Amino acid sequence: MDINLVVEELTKQAANTAPFGAKLKFVIDDQPILIDGHNGNAVTLEDAEADCTISTDSESLMKMKSGDLNPMMAVMTGKVKIKGDMGLAMKLQSLL
């Protein structure tokens, strides 16, 4: 999966979501994507500290996006790992 396509999709979704006042980092196939909810949900490829970090692989991300994989089941089976603010992670439905 091309990480630039993921960034493009996240940028579109983030623009339609109210700023959430925190920094969220996705790590997809070891590539960081930072969403700064303090700055209007700006999406960058910056590898900075975040309030919540969600790690997964591109295959699992695509399955979650298409509805073929339940996000909660992905966490419980280890396909998705979450570090930091779990409450923030739960707010992400609107971004995915």
Overview of this structure, please?
This protein is an alpha+beta fold. The chain is about 35% helix and about 25% strand. The chain has four helices and five strands, in the order H-E-E-E-E-H-H-E-H. It has helices spanning about 5-15, 60-65, 70-75, 85-90; strands at about 25-30, 30-35, 40-45, 50-55, 80-85. It has a five-stranded mixed beta sheet. The radius of gyration is 12 Å and the shape is globular. About 20% of the residues are buried.
Quick structural summary:
The chain has four helices and five strands. With 96 residues, the chain is an alpha+beta fold. The chain has a five-stranded mixed beta sheet with strand order 3-2-1-4-5.
Name the poorly predicted regions. none
Give the tally of β-strands: 5
Helical amount among residues, as a percent range?
25-40%
Strand order of the largest sheet: 3-2-1-4-5
What's the Cα radius of gyration? 12 Å
Our estimate of the beta-strand percent is 25-35%
Report the structural category: alpha+beta
How many helix segments?
A: 4
Question: SSE layout and pairings?
Answer:
Blueprint: H1 3-15, E1 23-28, E2 31-36, E3 42-44, E4 52-56, H2 58-66, H3 71-76, E5 81-84, H4 86-90
Looking at this protein, list some descriptive labels.
single chain, 96 residues, alpha+beta, five-stranded mixed β-sheet, 4 helices
